[in-house]
Design goal:
Blueprint (H helix, E strand, L loop, with lengths): L4 E7 L4 E4 L5 E14 L5 E13 H10 L5 E9 L8 E4 L5 E14 L28
Parallel strand pairs: 4-7
Antiparallel strand pairs: 1-3, 1-5, 2-3, 3-4, 5-7, 6-7
């Protein structure tokens, strides 16, 4: 069986790198995806979905070095589920309400922010990873 997820979004905060007990680097960051649509009454509804992303090895070091809050990235990987529920991780917020968190273990992270935004320019492999031919993504 196989599972894969691909998301494109903007980092919600600067990446945080740490090291596993065996010395391997792991970097974590949050990624926001946005969409807008019109409801039945014609009002524009904006919806944001947040993902927590973990990336390992050499990619973890590159993500920590070259990405920062607000930069756009494409993440390919698999969803990590809560072993208790089989779904997203649930938690209790400080105000007592319940929240959920979608977690992605990344296989690939591609940098999509243009050079003028301070990134390395284009995708991490030097190509147009988004395949959007220069059109702007509405995030």
């Amino acid at each position: 069986m196989y599972q894969s997820i691909t998301v494109i979004g903007r980092l919600g905060r600067d990446p945080e790198m740490r090291y596993m007990p065996n010395g391997d680097p792991v970097t974590s960051f949050s990624l926001a995806t946005d969409r807008a649509y019109k409801d039945k009454s014609g009002q524009v509804v904006k919806e944001t979905t947040w993902f927590r992303v973990s990336v390992f090895g050499a990619q973890a070091e590159n993500v920590n070095k070259f990405l920062s809050k607000g930069k756009m990235a494409l993440v390919e990987g698999r969803l990590r589920v809560d072993p208790k529920t089989g779904g997203p991780t649930t938690f209790t917020r400080q105000d007592g309400t319940t929240g959920t968190s979608f977690e992605i273990v990344a296989n690939t992270v591609r940098f999509l922010s243009p050079r003028e935004e301070g990134g390395q320019g284009g995708a991490s492999d030097g190509g147009d990873a988004g395949g959007h031919g220069g059109e702007e993504i509405p995030f």
